[in-house]
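Hi F.,

I've been meaning to write this up properly since the lab meeting, where we talked about keeping a consistent format for the predictions we share between groups. The idea is simple: the sequence comes first, exactly as it goes in, then the structure tokens exactly as they come out, then a line or two of notes. No screenshots and no reformatting. I'm using this chain as the first example so we have something concrete to point to.
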Amino acid sequence: MKELIEVIAKALVDYPEEVVVTQTETEKTIRLELHVAPSDMGKVIGKQGRIAKAIRAVVKAASSKEDKKVIVDIVQ
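Output, unedited:
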């Protein structure tokens, strides 16, 4: 999952070297935090959050084989 988000985010932003994804895993959940440059936040979120929703949908589809809930957070 971590690599999937990195690939998607790096394709969207102007500063791909500043894209960092951290993964925290518990028994029932996997939390992925996406960190990008402040100037790239709008590109990752999109108008009305459409790109963020699309990223979450792709990750949810990719994680359907696992029995864990995947949470994607976009943080500064």
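Notes:
Residues 50-62 form the longest helix (13 residues).
DSSP finds three helices and three strands in the chain.

If this format works for you, I'll send the rest the same way.

G.
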